[in-house]
Design goal:
The protein is α/β, with parallel strands linked by helices. The protein folds into two domains: 40-125, Rossmann fold (3-Layer(aba) Sandwich), CATH 3.40.50; 150-289, NAD(P)-binding Rossmann-like Domain (Rossmann fold). It is 39% helix and 19% strand. α2 packs across α10 (288-306). The longest helix has 21 residues, at 17-37.
Amino acid sequence: MADILVKSESGALIIDGKAASAAVLADVAKGAAELIAAGIKPGLAVVLVGEDPASQVYVKSKGKAAETCGFHSVQHTLSADTSQADLIALVHKLNADPAIHGILVQLPLPKHIDSQLVLETISPSKDVDGFHPVNAGLLAIGDRKRALVPCTPAGSLILLQKAMESLGRSIAGCDAVVVGRSNIVGKPMAQLLLSENATVTIAHSRTKDLASVVKRADIVVAAVGIPEMVKGDWIKPGAVVIDVGINRVAGEGLNAKGEPRTKLVGDVDFAGAAKLAAAITPVPGGVGPMTICMLMANTLTAARRTKG
């Protein structure tokens, strides 16, 4: 992978998620071509229920990435009033389809559907989002060889590894703080850091004296979902900061339509943190691009496992 760190005027190295994701996708496309030559074409099925605009954008991006990698890609678009039973029946059908190696049900689902039940219906071997309890359990016991790891934490780890390598450091032995305890990012991120031999603390919005907890960390992963919650002066000088948050907040002025402008910010005060950190991910352009490419990587892994 090419160097993904860029020197900023503030002093910190900026971790370029776009460059990293392009490198991962290139590797996945190469691996897919080799697997196709061996007689197996990786197949990804994406299921979208309803017409949530953000979900439609995500699904379109995932389909485009799958085609770029040479996958067999299918999309099932269901109406918002689709019953839970019909959705589960579709998942069972995809579980049984040998041409499909990865299944992704786009979240959020309509309120009348039990999301956890649907996710648990997906075969663990095709759970390319990494949300099934079996995959969560495998990751928790440190069995990354058999687990399918959630995409955002997996991508975050790659960015962290490349940053530490460029700085001449190792994750092993570092004091890492993960701010956020979700099953999707916080908890699996902590498990990945543990597997890299870091000393890990999981903090959250109710942690007492959160600032002092963060300030002792060599590695900070912010995934709490609160705009710029982690202040710049909380960062230990020389720390590496991975900002998973993507929050839309009010911007300045009006756009061409006369509407108030908005902007994307992370869970970290980037301007303040960049003055102290050795390396930091921007928002946008940091962790975000890695999520989709890791979905492709998981699909390739799932397809490879069918060949043993």
